[in-house]
Amino acid sequence: MEGKKKLVLALVWQMVRKHTLDVLGNINEEKLLQWALNKVTKEPKIHSFKDPTIKNCQFFFNLLEALNPEAIDRENVAEGANKEEIEKNAKYLISVARKMGALTYVVWEDIVDVRPRMVLLFVAAICALERTSTA
Asked: Which of 47, 52, 75, 116 is the most buried (most CB within 10 A)?
C-alpha cells in the first residue's frame, strides 16, 4: 500500500506543478527562478529552489519588497541566526505574502526545511501576485 501512496502523491505533485506553471503562462522552473532573481537586486541571492540560504527568508523578503517596497516592516525581520529567528521570519514572510494577496498553501515549516517543491509553489504564488496586480 505504501508504494501506491507514493505513486499517487508523486502524480498529484506533477499535476499541481504543471497547473501552477501553466497558469503563469507555460513558464518552467528555471524561468521562474530567473524571474525571482531578476526582481531581487540585493543580496542574498539563491541558486535554486533547494538553496539552503532560503531558510532565513531574507531573499523572499527582498522579493516581496521588489513588488511593494512598503510591504515588509524590517523591525519584524530577524537576521535568521538561530532556529527561533528563522521560524519567526518564516511565519512573518508567509503572513506578509498572504496580506499582499498571494494565494499560497505553503506553511512556515516548508520554508524553514527548504522543501524545494513548496518553495517553487511559493515563488509561483508571488509571481502570480505580480502578474495580477499589473494586469
From this structure: 116
Q: Is the pLDDT of residue 1 over 70?
A: no
Q: Which three cell numbers, joined as nine digits, stand for 23?
A: 497558469
CB 100 within 8 A of CB 64: yes
CA distance 56 to 29: 22
Q: Indicate the burial class of 83 (C-beta count within 10 angstroms; 0-12, 13-18, 19 or more).
A: exposed
Q: What is the pLDDT of residue 17?
A: 81
pLDDT of residue 132: 83
- The pTM for the full model equals 0.89
Could you give the CA distance from residue 11 to residue 25 in angstroms, rounded to a whole number?
Answer: 21
